[in-house]
Structures are given as C-alpha cells and as structure tokens.
Amino acid sequence: MSTTRPRDAGLLTLRLPVGAYASILHRLTGLLLVGVVGLALTFLRASLQGPAAFETVAQRLRGPWGHALGPVAVWIVAQHLYGGIRHLLLDAGWGFGRDRERLSAFAVLALAAVTALGAALSWP
User: Fold this and answer.
1) Which of 20, 54, 72, 100 lies at 20 to 30 Å from 46 by C-alpha?
2) How far does Cα 50 stand from its chain's mean position?
3) What is the C-alpha separation between 78 and 66, in angstroms, rounded?
4) If you write DSSP's letter for every residue of 90-124 in order, what string do you get?
C-alpha cells in the first residue's frame, strides 16, 4: 500500500471543478435567501405603518448597514437566480461537456459578481 495517498478526504483538500462550486453556491444562497426574504418582509411591514415609519426604514437602508447588507442581499438573489437558470438549462440538455459546464459556471459567478458590484455602486 502506498504511503503517498491522502489520509483525509475533507472538503478543504478536494479540488472540485468550478461547476461544483457554482452548484454548492446555488444551494447555499437558497438557504440564505430565506433570511433575505424575511428581512425584506420585515422592512416592508415596518414601512407600511405610516410616513414616519417609512422614513425610518429608508434611513436605515441609506445608512452604513444598508450599504453593507444591500449589495450582499442583491448578490445572494442574483447568484441563486443565475445558478437556477444554469441548472434549468442543464436539465433541458444544454451545456453538457466539460467546456460548456465550466463556461456556464464561470458565467454564473461573473454575472452575480457584476450584478452585486452594480448594486454596490448604485446604492442610494
């Protein structure tokens, strides 16, 4: 038996293809999306209490926490959306093969990053 084999096959030692990371991110952002939707509904409910409550919510979204969490929330939604579209296309039979799978995974990651960057630059 060879002694050069790795003893631990943990997630940090594995080298997964980029498609696997895109798929894992799709699942992770799906879980995080529950929190984002809950937070958005909380803000919506608070803002509907009246003009003063609306202004309070608007000030929070314009503040430092809004500037930090807003683009992150946009990235979560974008990553999950683009990853879902990629999975639907794969289910429909498009994108099989190593080159197409890598290209679609990189496209999902890049589109989500560009969307989040655009949100960060245009946040009020």
Assistant:
1) 72
2) 32
3) 17
4) HHTT-S-SHHHHHHHHHHHHHHHHHHHHHHHHH--
DSSP assignment letter at 4: -
Residues 52, 39, 113, 86: is their CA dihedral positive or negative? Answer: negative
- What is the phi-psi region of residue 64: left when phi exceeds 0, alpha when psi lies from -120 to 50, beta otherwise? alpha
> pLDDT for 92-124, tens place per residue?
998 888 899 999 999 999 999 999 999 999 988
Quote the DSSP letter at residue 12: T
The structure's pTM equals 0.84
d(CA 84, CA 86): 5
**Residue located via tokens 């937070």:** 39
Whole-angstrom distance, CA of residue 77 vs CA of residue 1: 48
> What six digits make up the tokens of 61?
């979204």
